[in-house]
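Record 1 of the preview.
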Amino acid sequence: MVGIERSILPALAQEEFHLAERTAILSFIAVFGVTKAVANYFAGRFSDRWGRKPVLVAGWLVALPTPFLIMAAPSWEWVVAANVFLGISQGLTWSTAVIMKIDLAGARNRGLAMGINEFAGYFAVALAALATGWIAATYALRPEPFYLGVAFAMTGLLLSIIAVRETSGHASLEAEDRQANGSPVGTPGAREVFGRVTWNDPNLASVTQAGLVNNLNDGMAWGLFPLLFAAAGHGLAAIGALAALYPGVWGLGQLLTGALSDKIGRKWLIASGMWVQAAGIALTAVATGGAGFAAGAVLLGAGTAMVYPTLLAAIGDVAHPSWRASAVGVYRLWRDLGYAFGAILGGVVADHLGLRGAVALVAALTFISGTIVALRMQETLRRK
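->
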């Protein structure tokens, strides 16, 4: 669903709705980020209270209007409204999918499970971006590319209803095992969990700020990279291919990096991954042609693959099973607010300093985030 938007919504904003200011173009990402962030938080709380599967099914029901709203949109405000539905859906479905896989995998294979999970999502983003770029170049920006969205939403809903089983019992069993092994008992309240994940616990807080900055640069890449590629003279098909390269490397790489974090630990994979991201974004800021853009996308994808599943695995390492879903919800609240911050910051800076100036600023922020992890975070992987 997100991949459909990555290659063509910025072009749709310029060509069909005649938006010129980057801040206005990126408004759909800001709205998506805020609604997804809030939905993430409630997905965690609801999953702890009512179970995982009902939240997952509800999320796919909310997804259904999204492609129809964009296909029928008479104004840009309809596209923004469609991203409210998409953000809520993503928050409920993706948070619940993550929580369920953490439930099922157990401590030993948590990084591997997160790598497989994130591979599935972001390789699909790459394929959808590539497909919609080709469809838009062959037919039109609307409605043909969004037929895929209808199929995706219906498939996700049916699979969730028919094939998925509740997993909260696995978390309860893990909590009992920890209690039997002397782990502290007691479930903190919502305010305490929020404080721990946001700032009080140095490990959880380091993970949270890295997640926020990761999605800040992803929001910038989503909104500004297609405009940067177009300004360099690339057509829709080429933009779709370049937009697919970054999440493609990201998705495939996570099959290796998630399992690697189970072997070597979380901290330095996260810190170095943020630095590799920064290098890829900086290269994109100074590149002038397709080869430079492609190299920047590969570096950004590789760095994100190092970071993304490892952050979730680290949350699972630290948070007790009795409040882990809530911790994941708070982490993903802050992480996906990064989309909004990236869209707003990228749009404002691009309108004043140009596209390349905005991209360079985000590269600097990403490097600083990796340094915070290196200085504040301790290793969270428990080795027997």
